[in-house]
Design brief:
34% strand; globular; binds S-adenosylmethionine; alpha/beta; 5-stranded antiparallel sheet
C-alpha cells in the first residue's frame, strides 16, 4: 500500500509504502528512507537533536542532528575501517585518545589490542553516551566496563588543549562538521596541529572524513584530506561502503613517521596481535580500502582547500 510521504521538514517526497519511516537527507538532493518499528529514545540535548530508533532494515541506529551515526547491522564496517588500518601499523599502541565515539564501538575495536593500556574517550554529550550505553549494547559490547577505558564528558578539543598527556593514536570519531553542531572545530588545520603536538614520535591520527561518492567527495573528504596533508608528513585517504550512510565513507590517517603499507601483509600482523573474529577487515579488505577509484584520486589531487579556524568547513 502506498501513501504520501513527507520528510522531517515536511516536504512532500512522493509516495512510499505505509508505515513509520525515518527519512534522512543523504545530501541536499537525495533522501534515504528506512522503515522503523519504534523510537527507543529521543532528546534535544544541550548539544544536539538525538534519537535511537529500531529500524527494520539496519536494526538500532543512533541519529544525531538528523544524520545516522552508525547502525547495528553495519557499524562493524565503519568501526573496523576506522580503527584497524592505523592500529595494525603502529607497533605498540599503548595510550589512545578517542574524540567522540559515543556508541562505544570505536573503543570496543581499540580495546581488542592487548598492547593498549589506557584509552581516554572524551565525548561532549553525556546524555547521548548514557542512551548508547543503555540501548546500543550490541555496539559497545561492554567496552564501557573495560578498566582500561576512562570516559570523560567534555569538548575533545578543549581537553587536548589542556592535557599534558601524549598519545600513540588519536581517533577523531565525531559527527560531520554541521554549522549548528558541536564538531566542526575538530576539522581544521589548527586542530590537526594540536593533535600532532599530543602524539608520541610514532603517533598516528585517524579521522572519519565524510562521503566519498562522486556527488559529494569534494564537500568534506577531499578538504579534510588536503588539510591533514598540510600538517603531517604522511597522509593516507581511504574509504569503505557503509550501506546505512547511503554512500561510501572516507577516512584519513595522518602521521609524521608511520608508513601505512597500502598493499600490506595484514593477515600475518593480525595473527601476531591475536586480533581475530573481525567481520570486515583483513588483508584483502585492507587493499580494497586503499585502492581508491579514479574519480576520487582525481578529486583528491585537484583539491586546494585547507580548512582553517577563520574559514571553517560546514556541511549540509
Ligand atoms: N560514526 C559517526 C559519524 O558517522 O560521524 C560519529 C559517531 S559518534 C556517535 C559521535 C560522537 O561525537 C557523539 O557521541 C557526540 O556527542 C560526540 N561529539 C560531537 N562533538 C564533539 C566534541 N566537540 N568533542 C567531543 N565529542 C563530540
Amino acid at each position: 500500500m502506498l501513501s504520501k510521504g513527507h520528510d522531517n521538514i515536511g516536504h512532500n517526497i512522493g509516495s512510499v509504502p505505509s508505515g513509520r519511516w525515518h527519512f534522512e537527507e543523504i545530501n541536499i538532493n537525495l533522501v534515504q528512507a528506512e522503515r522503523y518499528s519504534e523510537i527507543l529514545w529521543e532528546s534535544t540535548t544541550k548539544y544536539q537533536e538525538a534519537k535511537i530508533i529500531q529500524g527494520k532494515c539496519f536494526g538500532r541506529s543512533l541519529i544525531l542532528d538528523g544524520k545516522t551515526q552508525s547502525t547495528e547491522s553495519d557499524e562493524f564496517i565503519y568501526h573496523e575501517s576506522l580503527i584497524h588500518p592505523a592500529f595494525i601499523h603502529h607497533k605498540d599502541p599503548k595510550n589512545v585518545f578517542i574524540a567522540g565515539g559515543g556508541e562505544g564501538a570505536t573503543a570496543r575495536e581499540v580495546l581488542r589490542y592487548r598492547s593498549v593500556q589506557n584509552v581516554t574517550m572524551v565525548d561532549i554529550d553525556e546524555e547521548v553516551v548514557s542512551a548508547c550505553r543503555k540501548f546500543l549494547v550490541n555496539h559497545h559490547q561492554g567496552a564501557f566496563d573495560d578498566p582500561r577505558l576512562e570516559l570523560i564528558f567534555g569538548d575533545a578539543k578543549h581537553y587536548l588543549e589542556t592535557t599534558d598527556e601524549k598519545y600513540d593514536v588519536v581517533v577523531i570519531d565525531v559527527p560531520d562538521p554541521l554549522e549548528a553542531g558541536p564538531a566542526y572545530k575538530l576539522f581544521t588545520a589548527e586542530f590537526y596541529r594540536l593533535v600532532q603536538s599530543k602524539l608520541n614520535k610514532s603517533g598516528i591520527l585517524i579521522t572519519q572524513a565524510g562521503p566519498t561518492d562522486p556527488t559529494s567527495s569534494d564537500q568534506c573528504f577531499t578538504k579534510v584530506f588536503n588539510t591533514i596533508k598540510s600538517e603531517f608528513r604522511r597522509s593516507y585517504p581511504y574509504h569503505s561502503h557503509i550501506p546505512a550512510f547511503g554512500t561510501t565513507w572516507g577516512f584519513v590517517i595522518g602521521s609524521d613517521t608511520q608508513i601505512i603499507d597500502e598493499a600490506g601483509n595484514i593477515d600475518a600482523k593480525l595473527e601476531e596481535r591475536e586480533i581475530d573474529n573481525l567481520s570486515m577487515y583483513d588483508g584483502v579488505a585492507h587493499r580494497g580500502l586503499f585502492n581508491l577509484p579514479r574519480y576520487l584520486r582525481q578529486s583528491i589531487s585537484s583539491e586546494k582547500h585547507i580548512i582553517r579556524n577563520n574559514n571553517p568547513l560546514f556541511v549540509k
